[in-house]
Each structure stands twice: as C-alpha cells, then as structure tokens.
Design goal:
With 631 residues, the protein is of the alpha+beta class. It contains 20 helices and 19 strands. A hairpin with a 4-residue loop joins β14 and β15. α1 packs antiparallel against α8, α5 packs antiparallel against α6 and α8 packs antiparallel against α9. It is elongated.
Amino acid sequence: MSQPRLKSLLALAIALILLLWLPLPSHASSVKAPVVLDGHVLFSVGESGNFTAQERAAAVNRTLAAEARSTTSPEIRVVQEEGLTILRSGDRYLLTVTENDLQNAAWPSGQGRIWRKQLQHAIERAQRERTATYQRQMIGLMVAMFLGSLLLLVIVRQSTTRLSRHLMQAIDDPSSPLSPWAEPASLFVRILRWVSEVGLAIGLLCLISEQLPQTRTWRYRFFQLWSDPLVPVNEGVSKSIADLVMLVLISLGLWFSVSILSRWFKMSISRRMGRESSTYEVIATLVQYSLVLLGLLIVLPLWGINLSSLAILGSFLGVGLGFGVQNIINNFVSGLIIAIERPIKVGDFVTVGNFQGTVTQIGSRSTQIRTQAQVTIIVPNSRFLDSEVINRSHDDTISRLHIPVGVAYNSPIALVRKALLESATQHREVLLRPEPQVWFMEFGDNSLNFELLVWTVEPKEQRRIKSDLNYRIEANLRKYNIEVPFPQRDLNVRSPQLQTLVNTILQQQGVEIAPEPPLETSDGEALAFLDVAPELSSIEQFSSRDIEQLVAAMRGPEGIDISDRRYRFNMYPRCFIGSEAVTWLMQYHDCCRESAVAIGQMLGDRGIVHHISDDHPFKDAYLFYRFYADE
C-alpha cells in the first residue's frame, strides 16, 4: 500500500475514534442514583413518587453509614407491607423497592432479595474493616505498596525513555516510511509516553487506596466531584468537569487530525502540480480552519450544546474579535491574494522597505526573508500589498548594476573608458549581452565622474560582483597610471604683514619680485569699470556714518529677522540667515544680488557681522550669521 494511502487511512481512523469516544447525552444517568458504602457502588435506585433518585439514594447511604459504624451484627430483612417490598436493617427503614428499581429481577420482591444479600455482605465487610487489627495490617500493606509503586514507576520511566529513543531513531531514518512525519510522530510518542506513565501512577494510587474504607471514600468523592453535573450547557442539561475535559481533548484531537489531513493535502497536491509547497500554504491553512469549524459544529450539538443559544454571544464576540484581530485577518487575506496572484515566489530576491533578501517561505500570515547576512526576517503579508516591493527576480532575473568612478581632471577620457570596460569584460559573471557601458556623468568639484553599467543574472550576488569589479577597476587604473583624486580646498590668506615678510625672504634669497599693479588707473579704465559694475564700485565709498545707519536699519523693527534658531540638536541665539539678509539689502539699497552679497562681506570685513562658527564668508545661502553687538 502506498504511503499517501496509509496517511489518509490514519487520518480517517483518528476521526472515527474521536466520534466513537464522543459522550452522547444519556437520560439513564439522570434517572438513576447509586447506593454507595465505603466507596463501593452496591446498586442504583430510581425515582419514586415525589422523591427523586438522588434523594432516595442519599437516605439509603446515610442509613448504611450508620450501620457500618455500629458494633452489632446487621440483619437485613425483606418485608411485605400493603403490597410493597420494603428493605429494613433491624428496625431501621432502608428503602422501598419499586418498579423503577428493577434491574436483575422481574418483580420488586425478587429484586429485594438480591439487594438484601448485597447489603448484608457490604455491611459485614464495612464493620470488619473498621476494626483496629485490620486497620494496622492495611496501613503497613499500603506503605509497602507505596514504596513498591515508586520503584516500579522509576523502572517504567527508564524503560519508556529508552524505548522512545530507539523508536525516534528508527523514525528519523531516511529509509523509514514515517520519515516525512518525524515531527508529529515525535509529538505522538511523547504524548503516549506521558499518558502511559500518568495512567500507571493513577492506577497504582487507586490500588493503594482500595485497602481502607476511608481512602476508598475519599477516592470515590474525588471522582464523583469530576462526574457530578456542575455546568449548565442547555435547558435541563448539565455537564460535569470530566465532560468539559473530554470536550477539550476531543477538540484537540480534532485539531491534530485536521492538521495531519491538511498537511497531507498540501503535500499531495503540490507534488502532483509540480509547484512549490508554499503556494498551497494559505490554501491548506484555510482548509484546516474550515474543517475544524465544521467539526466543532458537529461535535457541540452531539455533546448537548444548543448552537442557537450561542448565536447572540457569537455575534458580539465576532464584532469584538473583528476589531481586535483585523490586522491578523488582513495578513491572512493578503497571504491568500499572494498565493493566487503570485507577485512573489519562494527564491525571489526582493526589497521590502529597508529589508533585502531571498524569500524562503510564504506562510498564511507572514513571509520569511533571509538576508545576505543569513538573518531571517519575518514580514507580515500585508506589507507586500500595502507598500512598494522591488522583486528583482520577477519575470526576468537580469538586472543592471551601477558602479560610480571618479578620476583626476588630467586623465585621458579614452583611456579611462578602456580601463573600465576591461574590468567589466574580464569578470565571468558580467553579461556581454547587453554590453557593458561607460557613461560620463558630470564634471565634479575634484574629479571627472564616470559610471560603469553592467548586467548580471543573479540579483542577490550584486554586492559581491560590485566588490569584485571595484578590485579590478583599481588594478586597471594603476595599470594605466590614472589617478583617483581626493577632495581639495584652496586656502587664501590676506595679510599685508605676511606678504611683506615673504617678499623680504625672497629678496634675501635673490629672487626677483614682480612689481605690484598701480593703485591709480586712467580715467578710461575707471569709466569702463563703472559701466560694468556701478553698484560694486560705490560700496567702497561707504562712510562710517552710512555703515552705522545701515546696521541700525538692519537691526531695527523693519530690518532683518534676528531670532534664536535651531539646527539639528544645537541652539544658536540672536542670529539671522544669509539669504534673507541679501534679499533685504537688495530692497533697501535697490541693488543687484552681487552688490548685496558684497555689502554683507564688507560688514564682515569691518568686524560688524560674522558666521556663527567663523567657517564661511558672507554668502547668499542658508547660513547663520550674527552681529558682534549681539554676542
């Protein structure tokens, strides 16, 4: 027989066993009550007239308990009075045998004679077991039995541990037919081992407690507490604690059997369709939940629960759970949409937000992504539908890789292009079709910026390929003596004293110094300069009074905005923005932007304003400046 056939028969057998174990509502238990003495059930009585079965049994039990404590020998008699069969113990009334009490006889008189023998024997035994000699003997025997039980439990535990270990080794063997079911088989073995050990311990305790009437009574009351109806589940129907425990066990068994059935369904369908099993993960989970719900709808009415009484409660719970688990439902529905539309599949290289990696499993509520650092990230399924997802493996795995390269300004461009293309074509994982390309991107501040564009097949290997290409590019640039620049800054120092010192040193070394240009120019040169920049030439003619008026206007009510400003985590008090000051100066002086910047620089040169950290001259930019008067 094939393995899938065995698995299906196993699931069907579990379901049938659960249905056979299901406790159906019984009316017999509600019309009969037991007569008990010292934990032994003698017989059961039914209702009679206005007395219920429980009331009749309680009265008989009290009388029997009194007779058991008595030191006189019991005398149980069957008396016929007015056509009724009555049982008496001496002069004490026990019960009247009615038609509802018949069990082993056709007439009440015959049933009374049978019960008389049982009661006579039970009372004699109860009086004998209450003697001091019997009590001492049984206590010693119980102690010996308890010690022997402990030794037996230790031996059984070691044996079951060794047996379960050998059994799991046989199941984990790849050649075993149960190898695909190693995980549920391991759980089943552990449960079976626990049930056997607990069942043995309970059986030994019951055997030990059988020796004394007191312990038998305690044992009977304990089990009676579990079996007495306590929880009303329907009109006129109550369930005991044992019934509730049985319902829980049946529900767990139903869930376990449905899980096995859904797993078998997913494995068999995915094997026949030839697609990855994760595609059917959501469908299998949906089938599992549906079968569990269907099973509960069948089990609960058989157990005695009226589902119509739970409709209103279920509606309120449905509304509350709808608001509480809406994110879970959203992820579940998103997983169903992913399984149907398949925007991503197992093995795809995706980017979700800040996460990038390979999809390893698509579940009913979440998807697992393994990054290149071998870290598993669990992403809710709704993220794949609510936000942008980059799937580099969708339809076509070929993708382009960008590698920026900067070279010095004196580098020959043709040689740079040749070096970059050689680096790309020499790499075995770079595709030759489409061809690698070199783009001249821009003239940078310190370098000529190029970009090498190559095509690769494996998106998840791009970081490694980029590293390999960078190594090759650096080697080829050295090969062709192409310089990779570093950032540079020119520093201009304006100091007449320093220039005089430099000229003196140069003269001492015999170096000829070029004469400085004349300070005066001809009238034509002056007029030409004024024609080009009339505003800039008038800045040098600002008097001290003009500068004082300008500063007062800038700091006045109609001046620039001077306030405390925050940048990142720092607070800068009493400062203004350079671009706002330039705009204000253009309006105040009716000048161009270059002249306004020159006026601001003049204020800086004269020690009136400065940059807050003295890092920049006056610029038309978002930079903070401050008046020295506001320090």
